[in-house]
C-alpha cells in the first residue's frame, strides 16, 4: 500500500512518449487543460456538450443539472434514452455491425467471437423472452452468473427493457444472495447451472435454491438458467427455465424501451462501515456518459484496439468497463471466464499475445500474485511472450505499490506503455482520478490528477482545504453525472455516508484518506472508515464481525486489517468465545470452523486469515472496542500508543501472544 514514506521518497517520473501524445484522444497538457478550463468556466455547459456528443437521446434534455434537492442530484433529467440502444444499435445502424464486440475465451481456452450484430440479436431475443414471461420496466432482477457472453446479454437485455439489474458476484454465498434478493425486491433471478474456473466445475444454481430456502424470496417468479456445464440439479417446473428456451423462437429485434435519464440502470451492493451492504443506485444517462467517455479518455480507445478488462461483472469495474463502457464506445473486447493462474501463470500473457490485446486493465492483487508466480516459474514470465500489441495498461481496486508498478511497467508494458492507475469507487460509476496516457507524467504509486470536470480535493475534518503535502479526507466538491444517486431504500444513510454535515453537507466524502504532493498529484492512503480492501474487494469489518458473532460459539468479535504482501490487506479477527479461551489445539479447530462459517455467511473472500482468541477485547471504560490498538497487535507490533483510557490493558498481551 502507498504510505507516506513512498510519497516523500518516490521521485521517479515517466512522461508519455512523443509518439503517444501525438495520437492521443486527449493530447498533451494543453488538451487536458482545455477540458479542465471548460469545466471551470461553464460547469453545466461542459457536461451538456459531452452528453449531447456521446449519447443518442430519444428525447433531448434541456436541463443539465438539478440541484434543488441536493445531495439527491439529477442530471439531464428531462431527457430520455435507452442504454442498450446506445451500446448496440448505434454501431449496427452506423455500419459497424460486423465489428467484433466480444472475443470470449473460456476457462479451457476455447475462443468464440460475437459481432455487434450478433450481440444485438441475442440481446433482443433474450429481452423478447423476458417480456414474454411478463417482465417490464420498473422490475428488478438479480443476475448471479459467471463471466460469459450470457452475463453481458442478461445485463444488456435488462437495460433494453428498463429492468433494473443487481448483479451479485458468483463468489458470494447463498446468504449474501438472499439478502440482496430481499433488499432489492427482485422478481427475477438470472443465473447459470455452474461456473467453470481453474479447471473446475463449480455449481451455481444450488446457491440460488439455498437462498430461497432462507426465506423472503417469494416474489421471485422465475429463475432463468444459462446452461454452462449441464449439471443436473433441482428443477422447479413453472419457475425454472433455461436461458436458451427463453430465447428460442423469439425475434432478433426488440424495440428498446425509452426511459428517463434518471431511471435506475442498476443497483450494485458494496460494503460500508455498518454490517449491512449498501445498494448503490446508478442512473441511466449519467452513468452511460461517463463509462463511455472514460473508456475514450483514460484508455485512449481507438477503433482498432483490442481491449481487455480482467474484472468480473459482479463488481463495478465489470459494469462500467465490460458490460457498458466499451460497448458504448464500440470497442472489441476480450471477456475471460477463467483465472490468471490456470492452466499456468502465463495465462494472461498468453491471451494478450493470442488476441493481440492493446489495452489491458487489471488489479494490483493480480499483478502481485503474477510477480510471485513469474519468480516461481520463469517459463511463464511475461518476457517469454510477445506483448508488443499492448499500448496502454491499467490498474484498479487498491493502491499499487511502487515495486509492483515498476514490475508491471517493465515486464508487461515494455517500458513503453503508460500505466493508468485509476482511482474510483462503486459509488463514482467511473474513473475519477487517473493519469491520461497521452498527457500525464506518471509517478509509480500515484493515481495522479483528477479527470476534467471532477473537482477532487483533500480536506480536514471540518471540510477546510488542507495544504499540499498534508493528508486528509478525499472529497469531490461538485456533483458529476455518473455519481451514486441513492442507497436503495435508504436515503438517510445515503446522506449520512456521503454528504456528512460535518463537512458542510455539499462535498461527496469518498471514505479514503489521501495526500497531495507539491505537483498536485494525489496519493491514496487507504480507507478512513471500517472498510477493508482484500485483493481489491471491499469488505466491511462489521460485516465480517456480524458473520462471526452469528456462530453459536462466539460471544464477541472484532475485525481489523493488516498489510499483506499479496492481498493488500488481510483480515485479522479477534474472537471471544462463549466458553473459556481454548488451548492451542482446540483453537486451531475452532478457527478452521469459523473460517468455513464466514465463507458460508458472506463468501470465501471474507475468510479471516488470522483468528486470535482472547478472554476479552481491549475496551475503553465506556465499552468501546479500541480497534486502533488491535490494528497494532494484528501487525505483530508492540503497542506504544497511549492506553490510559483502556479498561483492561493486560488483554493486549494475551491477544498479541495468542495463536
Ligand atoms: C473501482 C473500485 C473502492 C475503493 C476506494 C479505494 C480503493 C480503488 C484505487 C483505490 C488506490 C486506486 N481503490 N482504486 N485505491 N488507488 N487506483 O475498486 O471500486 O470496489 O467500490 O472500491 O477501492 O479505497 O475507496 P470499489
From TrEMBL:
Gene Ontology biological-process entries: acetyl-CoA biosynthetic process from acetate
Enzyme Commission designation: 6.2.1.1
Ligand binding (CoA): 197-200, 317, 535
Amino-acid positions noted as binding ATP in the UniProt annotation, renumbered to this chain: 397-399, 421-426, 512, 527, 538
Pfam families: ACAS_N (PF16177), AMP-binding (PF00501), AMP-binding_C (PF13193)
Gene3D superfamilies: 3.30.300.30, N-terminal domain of ligase-like (3.40.50.12780)
One GO cellular component term: cytosol
NCBIfam families membership: Ac_CoA_lig_AcsA, PRK00174.1
Protein family per UniProt: Belongs to the ATP-dependent AMP-binding enzyme family.
Protein name: Acetyl-coenzyme A synthetase
Gene responsible for this protein: acsA
Amino acid at each position: 500500500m502507498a504510505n507516506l514514506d513512498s510519497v516523500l521518497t518516490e521521485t521517479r517520473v515517466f512522461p508519455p512518449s512523443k509518439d503517444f501524445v501525438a495520437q492521443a484522444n486527449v493530447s498533451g497538457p494543453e488538451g487536458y487543460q482545455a477540458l479542465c478550463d471548460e469545466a471551470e468556466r461553464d460547469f453545466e455547459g461542459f457536461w451538456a456538450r459531452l452528453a449531447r456528443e456521446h449519447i443518442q437521446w430519444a428525447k433531448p434534455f434541456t436541463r443539465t443539472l438539478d440541484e434543488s434537492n441536493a445531495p439527491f442530484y439529477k442530471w439531464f433529467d428531462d431527457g430520455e434514452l435507452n442504454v442498450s440502444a446506445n451500446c448496440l444499435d448505434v454501431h449496427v445502424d452506423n455500419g459497424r455491425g460486423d465489428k467484433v464486440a466480444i472475443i470470449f475465451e473460456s476457462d479451457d481456452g476455447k475462443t468464440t467471437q460475437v459481432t455487434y450484430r450478433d450481440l444485438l440479436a441475442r440481446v433482443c431475443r433474450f429481452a423478447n423472452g423476458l417480456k414474454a414471461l411478463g417482465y417490464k420496466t420498473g422490475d428488478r432482477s438479480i443476475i448471479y452468473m459467471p463471466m460469459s457472453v450470457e452475463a453481458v446479454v442478461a445485463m444488456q437485455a435488462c437495460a433494453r427493457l428498463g429492468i433494473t439489474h443487481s448483479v451479485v458476484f458468483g463468489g458470494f454465498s447463498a446468504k449474501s444472495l438472499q439478502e440482496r434478493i430481499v433488499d432489492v425486491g427482485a422478481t427475477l433471478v438470472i443465473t447459470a447451472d455452474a461456473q467453470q474456473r481453474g479447471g473446475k466445475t463449480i455449481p451455481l444454481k444450488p446457491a440460488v435454491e439455498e437462498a430461497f430456502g432462507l426465506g423472503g424470496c417469494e416474489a421471485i417468479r422465475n429463475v432463468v438458467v444459462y446452461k454452462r456445464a449441464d449439471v443436473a440439479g433441482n428443477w422447479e417446473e413453472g419457475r425454472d427455465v433455461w436461458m436458451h428456451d427463453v430465447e428460442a423462437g423469439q425475434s432478433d429485434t426488440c424495440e428498446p424501451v425509452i426511459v428517463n435519464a434518471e431511471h435506475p440502470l442498476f443497483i450494485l451492493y458494496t460494503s460500508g462501515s455498518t454490517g449491512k451492504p449498501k445498494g448503490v443506485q446508478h442512473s441511466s444517462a449519467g452513468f452511460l456518459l461517463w463509462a463511455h467517455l472514460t473508456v475514450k479518455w483514460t484508455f485512449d480507445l481507438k477503433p482498432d484496439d483490442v481491449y481487455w478488462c480482467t474484472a468480473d461483472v459482479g463488481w463495478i469495474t465489470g459494469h462500467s468497463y465490460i458490460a457498458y463502457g466499451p460497448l458504448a464506445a464500440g470497442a472489441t473486447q476480450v471477456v475471460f471466464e477463467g483465472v490468471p493462474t490456470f492452466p499456468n501463470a502465463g495465462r494472461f500473457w498468453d491471451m494478450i499475445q493470442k488476441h493481440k490485446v492493446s489495452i489491458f486493465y487489471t488489479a494490483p492483487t493480480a499483478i502481485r500474485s503474477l510477480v510471485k508466480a513469474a519468480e516461481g516459474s520463469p517459463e511463464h514470465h511475461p518476457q517469454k511472450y510477445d506483448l508488443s500489441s499492448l499500448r496502454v495498461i491499467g490498474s484498479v481496486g487498491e493502491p499499487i505499490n511502487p515495486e509492483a508498478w515498476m514490475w508491471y511497467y517493465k515486464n508487461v508494458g515494455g517500458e513503453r506503455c503508460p500505466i493508468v492507475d485509476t482511482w474510483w469507487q462503486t459509488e463514482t460509476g467511473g474513473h475519477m482520478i487517473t493519469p491520461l496516457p497521452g498527457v500525464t507524467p506518471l509517478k509509480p504509486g500515484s493515481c495522479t490528477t483528477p479527470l476534467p470536470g471532477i473537482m477532487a480535493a483533500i480536506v480536514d475534518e471540518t471540510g477546510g482545504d488542507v495544504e499540499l503535502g498534508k493528508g486528509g479526507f478525499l472529497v469531490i466538491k461538485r456533483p458529476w453525472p455518473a455519481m451514486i444517486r441513492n442507497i436503495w431504500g435508504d436515503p438517510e444513510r445515503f446522506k449520512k455516508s456521503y454528504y456528512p454535515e460535518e463537512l458542510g453537507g455539499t462535498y461527496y466524502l469518498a471514505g479514503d484518506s489521501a495526500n497531495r504532493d507539491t505537483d498536485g498529484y494525489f496519493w491514496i492512503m487507504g480507507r478512513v472508515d471500517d472498510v477493508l480492501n482484500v485483493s481489491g474487494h471491499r469488505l466491511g469489518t462489521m460485516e465480517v464481525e456480524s458473520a462471526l458473532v452469528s456462530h453459536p460459539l462466539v460471544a464477541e468479535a472484532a475485525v481489523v486489517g493488516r498489510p499483506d504482501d499479496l492481498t493488500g490487506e488481510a483480515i485479522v479477527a479477534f474472537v471471544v468465545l462463549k466458553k473459556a479461551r481454548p488451548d492451542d489445539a482446540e483453537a486451531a479447530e475452532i478457527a478452521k470452523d469459523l473460517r468455513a462459517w464466514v465463507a458460508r455467511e458472506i463468501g470465501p473472500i471474507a475468510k479471516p486469515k488470522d483468528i486470535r482468541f482472547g478472554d476479552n477485547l481491549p475496551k475503553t471504560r465506556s465499552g468501546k472496542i479500541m480497534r486502533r490498538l488491535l490494528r497494532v497487535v494484528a501487525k505483530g507490533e508492540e503497542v506504544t500508543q497511549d492506553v490510559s483510557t483502556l479498561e483492561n490493558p493486560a488483554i493486549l498481551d494475551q491477544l498479541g501472544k495468542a495463536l
